[in-house]
Amino acid sequence: KLYVQAWEEAKKKGYDMRADAIPIQSAKASRDIASDYKYKQTHEKEKGHYIGCPSAKDDPKLALAARAMALQNDRLYKKGYHDSKTQIHIPVDALSVQAAKECQTLVSDIDYRQYLHQWTCLPDQNDVIHARQAYDLQSDNVYKSDLEWLRGIGWLTEGSVEVVKAKKAQELLNDRLYRTRPEQLQFTSITDSPDIVLAKTNAMQLSDV
């Protein structure tokens, strides 16, 4: 008991150790080194086993294999469609087909412009040249017949509603008729007012004198 009494008393006082003590600094450094080694242990083991690219997508061989697999899957996915797309038969007298044909006929420019017959003769013959000019003139007349029929429809006669409306609008907007100057008005004075009678009397008296 007397042998361990000093040790017991030292334990009651606690430890007095500074943070910058050499043993503490050494322990911290050893702990950091061990922690860094444990952290990089898996990385050190896997060194030399890399494929040479940051990821599998950057590897040309893996990317080529993935592309080939995608193309193969796409071909297999569309195989049924390509096999069955040539087996569809639409009847010729279907309503949709007939409507499409009629619409195409109405829209077609070939049916709208009816060209006359063109002879297969020598191009330097006089009768062929005159006939071709006559055919061109006739074809141009036929082509412009609708325009000749429409010419003159847009003409407005005198006294029509549009012309009268335009004249009334012009009169309303005319500043000369709307604003009459005072000097253009014809003023007349009352003949029997006192000042007029006095003026006339004075004029007669001065005339007699």
TrEMBL record:
Swiss-Prot/TrEMBL GO biological process terms: cardiac muscle thin filament assembly
Keywords for the protein's UniProt record, in alphabetical order: Actin-binding, Repeat
Single GO MF descriptor: actin filament binding
GO CC, any one term: Z disc
Classification via Pfam families: Nebulin (PF00880)
PANTHER family referenced in this protein's UniProt entry, alphabetically: NEBULIN
Listed name of the protein: NEBU protein
Organism: Pachyramphus minor
